[in-house]
Every structure is written in structure tokens, then in C-alpha cells.
Amino acid sequence: MSYSRDLRGYGPTPPDAKWPGGARIAVQFVLNYEEGGENCLLHGDAASEEFLSDIPGAAPWPGQRHWNMESIYEYGARAGFWRLHRLFTGAGIPVTIYGVASALARSPEQVEAMLDAGWEIASHGLKWIEHKDMSEAEERAAITEAIRLHAEVVGERPRGWYTGRCSMNTVRLVAEEGGFAYISDSYDDDLPHWVRVGAREQLIIPYTLEANDMRFAGAPGYVTGEQFFQYLKDSFDVLYAEGQAGAAKMLSIGLHCRLIGRPGKLAGLQRFIAYIQGFEGVWCPRRIDIAEHWQRVHPPVRGLQVSGLSDAEFMARFAQVFGGVDWVVERAVLLERGPAHDCAAGLHSLLCRVFRRASPEEQRGVAESFAALGHDLDTTRAPDDLRCAVEAIARQRLSALLNGATQSERSQS
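-> C-alpha cells emitted (413 positions)
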């Protein structure tokens, strides 16, 4: 019985990212450009915006414009964007824009400045609205229109995607569109990784909701720029040390024009940029640069996927692990299987759970089967000792089976 959540990831030994030039960390800045794409009656929406502003406890106003909310978003486009543009171009750091297509269409001067600076403009959807209640057909149409409008406004289609206020279908629908080098609707890792969507291998570059100025607009959150700086600094220091130890990581930082673009908040970001510029081996790329690096240096590699096997395939492949005793694998296929079981530890856990549930007589039968196969096993031992011995032998047999499968795959490739 399989399911799709991946709680394993890279496991206990994540790969070294091997960033260009031997960088020990990739610090990637995202600037969300949402101003002009938010809920507003002027845009044909049913209510005003409620999300990510300096208005405490904001709620949508059905059928009414919210002047204060509109003016806060306008601040982001009118003043905040340009303050951030001066900061990043002055520091020589290119950023990735998450651009809401309808917001970009209403901001031609800002788009021109983004392009002149060499910034990547990824798609942030058609409108800055919730997608969780959209039907698949409605969301798919919104994705198609976002790409069309983005290309019309920017001059080329986006290669990266982040919805943000997404649905359970978003990642699959965007991957099925087929034209994206990466998707960032995930917060699940410190490194990019590949996911299988149908027959396609899709790169995921995880984003962040904590190293993010949105915490100025919620509780618990940041109150001063110094608090934001300290959190970013602590994040950088931990990941930089991991990079020095041979496992370089990525630090994503999320920004919004109407939030971090305010002077008191911006001061913390200024201090952080000055801080990291004092270190060797810091790479500040756009997200598309990370995607191209990962595709080249860490292309998708698929090993055994237990979570993708049918029950019949699972039983046929692993029946011999517990001495060919059928009831072990027959009961194991009834347990929940996921990506966490796509390794020796996961498979062993799955089979051992069934074995541990069994009666003493059934456990002894497995031990006798192992003894008949030539394993040195005293079947008269105490039940707990016998169980541990059987599980140890099963782990050895499983490791040998998986190593043999890996060598066979290599010889065929």
C-alpha cells in the first residue's frame, strides 16, 4: 500500500552541492513582485486583499475596496521596489523575481529595470490569490494564461515557477505543462531535488517561509530590522559551516517590496548583505543559475523505488529476504509504503514490523528456514535473542540483494 509523501529525502548523508568555484554556500535572494496582482475590486475580484501587509488582523472586505490595503501594496511598487533595486544592483547581486503576471503587466518601468539589471523573472502565477479551492481545469487555465501574459510583458516565457498560495494540484499541473526548469512550491529541503511527475523528472528548488520578510506581517515574527538580520546571520553561519565541512547547502531568502522595502526593515537586509560579503566562497546566484547547475552536476538518478512497486512486484522481489517464508512479504504489502522505504533501512523496517507482530511459532519457523538455508543459527535460543538474530540475517540478505540490483543497473547503463 503506497503513498506519495517523501519523509526521507537525501537521508543521513546529503550530497555536496558542488557549487561553482567551490563555494561553500549559495545565498539566493527572491523578490516577490505582487503589487498590482493582489485581490482588488478594480481587478474584478470579489473582495479586497487580506494577506501580507502591515495591517494587523486584516480581513477581506467582500464587495468593497480597502483603501489602506491598496495604498500599502502601492508603496511596494512606488517606493519599496526602487529601494531594493538600488540595494541589489549596488551590491552586484542578481536576484530572482517571483513575478505575478498581472502585476508585471501593470508595472512596465519596474519590469524594464529588472531586465536591465539581468535579474531572472520567474512566474508567480496569474494573480496573487488563493488556489486551494480551484478545480484542476480552472488552475490549469490560470497557469496557461500566466505563461502567456508573462511572455507578452517580459518578452520571453518564464523558466521558473512559484505559486505560493497553491493547491494540492499545483506542482503536478506545472510539471505537466513541461516548460519549467524548476518549481519552487516546496519548503522541504536545503538542497534542490528531483521528483517524478508521470514520465517527467521535475527539478524542485525549495523556497522558504522563515528566512522571509513575511514574518514582519505575522505572529510570531520580526519587529525590527535587527531581528531579521540576526535570523539570516544565524542561518548563514550554520549552513556556511556545513559547507566548510564538505556538504554545501542553499539559503533561500524571501523578500517583498511592500515589506522589506520600508526603511526600518531594509536596514536589517543591508547589514546581512554587508556581513556575507566579508566571507570567501559565497555564491549569490539567481534560481535559474541553480537549476542549470543542478541539471548539469546532479542529474536525476533513479534507484530502486519500493514505493512505486506493485504488491506482486514487491512480493516477488523481496520474498527471499526472510528465507522465502511467504507470509512475511504477503503481510508486508498491506503496510503503508512510501519514499522512506526506498533504502535498506526502510525495507528492513517494513519487513521486520511484520516479523515482530508474528507469533513465537511463526518466528521460529523463519529461523528454521534460515538454518535450512545454511545460516549459522541456533533455533533453541530464547525468543527475543532468536528474533534479533533473524533480523540481523535478514538485513545481511537484504543488503546483498540491493547491492546486486545496483550493480546490475550499472552494468546495463
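The two ends are 30 Å apart (CA to CA).
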